[in-house]
Amino acid sequence: MRIAGTNIPDNKRLDVALTYVFGIGPTKAKEVLEKAKIVVDRKASDLSDKEVALIRELVEKNRIEGDLRREISSNIKRLKEIKCYRGSRHIKRLPSRGQRTSTNSRTVRPYKGRMTMGSGRSKLDKK
What we know:
This protein has two domains: 2-61, Orthogonal Bundle (Helicase, Ruva Protein, domain 3); 67-127, CATH 4.10.910.10. The relative contact order is 0.10. The chain contains six helices and two strands; from the N terminus they run E-E-H-H-H-H-H-H. Strand 1 and strand 2 form a beta hairpin. The radius of gyration is 21 Å and the shape is flat. The protein has helices at 14-17, 26-35, 49-59, 65-82, 85-91, 123-126, and strands spanning 2-3, 6-7. With 127 residues, the protein is mostly helical. The termini are far apart.
């Protein structure tokens, strides 16, 4: 089964499998299955062609994949252009939602030799 350029796994439950599409979370997946009147426990391989077409139609009514990614990137670009606080945080590659930065935020900050810490001791100290 393929929706919006994303392969849906055959061996997972449908509510979980639909979340592989960017823009479809667990809640939206359950709503789509309710509208299609399909039981959540079924697998993608058990569906008929008619059911697959109905799910695809319901999912594609939402903003998903390329459209959603484009919209998010244009929103971030707009924030950067107007130079608001959130935009400046995006430019500096720092967290934009108020998190602390002295520790944590290692996934957002630019890499400058920082790695997640172990015990804090170097390998030479152990010998």
